[in-house]
Structure to design on (275 residues):
């Protein structure tokens, strides 16, 4: 391979870690993240003539990576059980048919900073998130853990903003229910 | 008041997602003034929201994460093979 700047080997050394971190923050799967880095570098090399040089090389690579990740997530979501279309509605656990609280919520007294430092709480939180139904969990992770905006999530998951807000609401209710039962509730 | 709690819960979640209409905004605010249970619940939503903010910013500052050596080598090999194919 030539020793000039424009070879994927060089890119791997200079940008590999960064691309990997980026992919990991969205996929949370080491093998998938590494694959994405590989696919990105290959695609970039094939499409090198499309690199105008207006942005930095890294920015360009990240752009390619973003698209690859979106495609991967879409493929996974399509592969899920299509019966997820009827998502569990946890709001029925909190609210009676009139729409009022069936169980009075109690404000949790902890502060978020100390909860964050508490390893056991973090594990409980992760367990509760993992128990969310697939589609709710997907969008919830993208929204709250990765911090993606509405547009990105709607485009990636192929849903309308309205549907997204419903899923997020249900996820939040389910999460609060789960944490109430498995963490905060015991402290009463 | 009673029928509104479930709806208020949705509106509160939506305040984190989109701008509420002025009508939604006012009705939510009035309801929260009158309903202690929804106020308690809103506190919990805000706590969780703040918690996730902390988690996200912590993730952004973990700069030690590196491509594992085996993956690095595997990718390097793969790129090299592809290059050989090209020649």
């Amino acid at each position: 391979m030539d020793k000039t700047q424009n070879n994927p080997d060089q890119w791997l050394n200079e940008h590999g870690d960064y691309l990997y971190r980026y992919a990991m923050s969205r996929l949370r799967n080491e093998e998938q993240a590494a694959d994405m880095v590989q696919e990105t570098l290959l695609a970039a090399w094939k499409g090198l003539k499309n690199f105008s040089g207006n942005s930095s090389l890294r920015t360009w690579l990240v752009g390619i990576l973003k698209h690859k990740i979106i495609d991967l997530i879409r493929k996974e979501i399509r592969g899920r059980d299509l019966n997820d279309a009827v998502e569990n509605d946890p709001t029925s656990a909190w609210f009676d048919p009139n729409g009022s609280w069936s169980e009075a919520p109690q404000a949790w007294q902890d502060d978020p900073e100390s909860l964050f430092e508490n390893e056991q709480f973090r594990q409980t939180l992760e367990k509760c998130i993992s128990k969310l139904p697939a589609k709710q969990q997907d969008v919830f992770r993208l929204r709250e853990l990765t911090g993606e905006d509405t547009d990105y999530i709607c485009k990636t998951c192929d849903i309308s903003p309205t549907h997204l807000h419903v899923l997020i609401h249900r996820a939040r209710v389910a999460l609060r229910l789960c944490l109430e039962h498995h963490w905060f509730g015991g402290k009463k | 008041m009673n029928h509104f709690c479930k709806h208020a819960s949705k509106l509160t979640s939506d305040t984190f997602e989109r701008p509420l209409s002025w009508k939604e905004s006012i009705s939510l605010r009035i309801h929260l003034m009158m309903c202690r249970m929804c106020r308690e619940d809103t506190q919990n939503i805000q706590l969780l929201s703040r918690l996730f903010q902390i988690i996200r910013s912590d993730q952004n500052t973990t700069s030690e994460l590196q491509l594992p050596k085996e993956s690095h080598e595997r990718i390097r090999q793969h790129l090299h093979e592809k290059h050989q194919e090209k020649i």
Notes: The first helix of chain A runs from residue 8 to 27. The radius of gyration of chain A is 21 Å. Residues 82-86 of chain A have pLDDT under 50 and may be disordered. The CA atoms of residues 105 and 185 of chain A lie 10 Å apart.
